[in-house]
Amino acid sequence: MALLELADLCAHYGRIQALSGISLTVEEGEVVTLIGANGAGKTTTMRAISGIRPISSGTLTFDGEDITSLRADLRVVRGISQSPEGRGVFPGMTVMENLDMGAYTRKDRKGLAQELDRVFALFPRLAERRTQVGGTMSGGEQQMLAIGRALMAKPRLLLLDEPSMGLAPQFIQQIFRIITEINEQGTTVLLVEQNAQQALSRADRAYVIETGRIVKTGTGRELLDDPSVKEAYLGVA
Asked: What is the per-residue burial (b if ≥16 Cβ within 10 Å, else e) of 87-114?
């Protein structure tokens, strides 16, 4: 049984259809990546999974339970947490306050201390800057904070939307290494990413989305070697 299953998902912005029957699965323990051009429907798919974007039709199943109509906050309680596109840190709050916001659904205070230790082990810079206000941090540091905040909910499924967007090359390498480490620690990852080379090289499986439809799927390696994917997303003719 898949941890996450999307079946024929459709979503609209007004009269514009953003998703046209998306179906995909994420198995427990996998890194699955979704690649596509700007406007293809990647972020809409992530928002539909997290419950931020209502869907028009189709079903969403998580750990065997239909969550299609479940509120976004209750999806966090079930085990789905998102680091959004653009990072979305609370700019006037400190690092610690941002991390606390990620844990707002948690009741187990002892578990919270363990999660904080995990986040600081993954992102030592956050530990060093725990009293710094989020809005004064660099883009790379804010991305670390956004992922750390999502991890504070102790998700079974971590949704990462464009984690490398706007980052310097050294930060991109570091963020992807940490994503691999998070997965190796037992967290399933669904990754939306413009950096197809990095994403596919770390993915167990991958989907290509174009104009709201899944047009190709395979292992990360298969899509890295696919001529049409190379031409469209890897800059290789």
From this structure: bbbeeebbbeebbbebbeebeeeeebee
pTM value is 0.93
Tokens, residue 133: 């206000």
Structural domain boundaries in the chain: 4-233
Q: Name the H helices within the chain.
A: 42-50, 72-78, 95-102, 109-122, 124-128, 139-151, 169-184, 196-202, 220-224, 227-233
Instruction: State both tokens at 227.
Output: 């001529």
User: Checking DSSP bridges between strand 188-192 and strand 205-210, what pairing results, if any?
Assistant: unpaired
Contact residues for 205 (Cβ-Cβ < 8 A; gap 6+):
30, 32, 33, 217, 218, 219, 220
Chain center to CA of 111: 22
pLDDT digits (tens, 9 = 90+) for 170-201: 888 889 999 999 999 999 999 999 889 999 99
Max CA separation in the chain (angstroms): 53
Fold of the 4-233 domain: Rossmann fold (3.40.50)
Q: Structure tokens of 137?
A: 């941090």
Cβ-in-10-Å burial (0-12, 13-18, 19+) of 230 comes to: middle
